[in-house]
Amino acid sequence: MEKPKVVLGVSGGIAAYKACELLRRLTESGHFVRVVPTASALHFVGEATWSALSGQAAVTEVWETVHEVPHVRIGQGADLVVVAPATADLLAKAAHGLADDLLTNTLLTARCPVVFAPAMHTEMWEHPATQENVATLRRRGAVVIEPAVGRLTGVDTGKGRLPDPEEIFEVCRRVLARGVAAPDLVGRHVVISAGGTREPLDPVRFLGNRSSGKQGYALARTAVARGARVTLIAANTALADPAGADVVRVGTAVQLREAVLKAAADADAVVMAAAVADFRPAAYAQGKIKKEEGAAAPTVELVRNPDVLAEISTERAKAGQVVVGFAAETDQVRENGRKKLLRKGCDLLVVNEVGEHKTFGSAENEAVILASDGQETPVPHGPKEALADVVWDLVVPRLA
Ligand code: CTP
Questions:
Q1: 359 by DSSP, 3-state: which?
Q2: C-alpha 390 – ligand 1 centre gap (Å)
């Protein structure tokens, strides 16, 4: 099979050095990569690095190797163009169709999916000019990844960091897998809860569960690749932040409820993939609970936690909002799933069979997705990302 052809455009920002890592990930995973740096990008990372890492001459100007007509051919032949980092200047040029170097020409001739990973100072990102350019690019079908929040060049922190190259690679992989299918969640805000809540008993102990958060993170990654604005409510996960997702960390069910309700206020879809504890200890011991010699074992009294899925399903924050729940069942999977779908009042319920060695922590999943209109979609055993894409396939036609 022919290697997928990727054009890695690099524009002139300090984060250009991180694009070397992205390049490595792409070539090592079997992609043919052509690097097209802008003249400014070469101030940060030299041509020799791009050529050596990609095994291809890195060209900047349209006036080199003119007989190969590179300003047309490179874009035409690509399966994916990814620009990382994309500066404010590069986004402006792309939005307005300017073509004064090889990268901007390539963007005009490419008919494949295009991913931009912007990186710049917060003020530049938030400027209406940049925001309008980003909106234009998204409207035309490009995937523009929201920058990460964190340390910027110098002493300032804020939104504008290039996400981890590993996570940009994940977006590229997802976008490539979708082929020419246009991003169908553009302009949509989706909220996903992931992981498992922990209910503290005392300063060192909690009641928790085995959820790793992988299914929720897969939902977040696939939604970013389909163009959505993503808020990921993460309960006690130890996974890398997906590129482009706004990650809100929570601990307990009560904290998760608060975060979900806040994010859901303007959301088009809410997917509750988190394993939320149904009960919490009635009392929290300020000091560590000690064992007393000869005394009976203590009894832990529990109280009910709010049911977040049922609450957001009955009181939809926005008309036409699609709500998706997950159900973990150990037996009578379909029957129990149908009952749960009715009880919770959500639109879709992803039912999977769990056990001590099934689903939790694994990269794979198998499920049946039940819809409130009676539709049933079995999803065969496979990667959690494949299941995530089926969830979005079912959410999209139900969106208002
Ligand atoms: N859920 C929730 N709030 C809770 C408990 C669960 O929002 N307090 C959500 C989960 O995120 C999941 C769905 O409800 O999307 C199903 O959770 P599950 O634990 O399978 O169902 P339960 O309602 O706990 O029913 P049971 O314990 O009878 O299986």
A1: coil
A2: 21
pTM: 0.94
> How far apart are alpha carbons 223 and 191 in whole angstroms?
10
Q: Ligand 1 pocket check: which of 279, 307, 322, 349 to mutate, most ligand atoms within 8 Å of Cβ?
A: 307
Axis crossing angle, helix 88-96 with helix 128-139, rounded to the nearest 10? 50
Q: Which CATH superfamily is domain 5-178 in?
A: Flavin prenyltransferase-like (3.40.50.1950)
Q: Whose CA is nearest to atom 20 of ligand 1?
A: 327
CB atoms near residue 181 (< 10 Å): 10
Nearest CA to 253 among 332, 175, 193, 171? 193
- 356 CA from centroid of ligand 1 (Å): 18
Alpha carbon of 340 to ligand 1 centroid (Å):
9
Q: Where in the chain is the domain with CATH 3.40.50.1950?
A: 5-178
Ligand 1 pocket, mutate which of 197, 326, 342, 354 (most atoms under 8 A from CB)? 326
Longest Cα–Cα distance in the chain? 90
Which residue out of 105, 209, 236, 336 is catalytically annotated? 209
**CATH superfamily ID and name for 189-398:** CoaB-like (3.40.50.10300)
Distance 327 CA to ligand 1 centre (A): 6
> Strands 376-383 and 364-371, how do they pair?
antiparallel
CATH 3.40.50.10300 domain extents, the chain: 189-398
Q: Which two tokens stand for residue 2?
A: 């022919």
Residue 336 a catalytic site member? no
Residue-wise pLDDT tens for the chain (400 aa)? 799 999 999 999 999 999 999 999 999 999 999 999 999 999 999 999 999 999 999 988 888 888 888 888 999 999 999 999 999 999 999 999 999 999 999 999 999 999 999 999 999 999 999 999 999 999 999 999 999 998 888 788 899 999 999 999 999 999 999 988 889 999 999 999 999 999 999 999 999 998 999 999 999 999 999 999 999 999 999 999 999 999 999 999 999 999 999 999 999 999 999 999 999 999 999 999 988 888 888 899 999 999 999 999 999 999 999 999 999 888 888 999 999 999 999 999 999 887 666 656 677 888 999 999 999 999 999 999 999 999 999 999 999 8
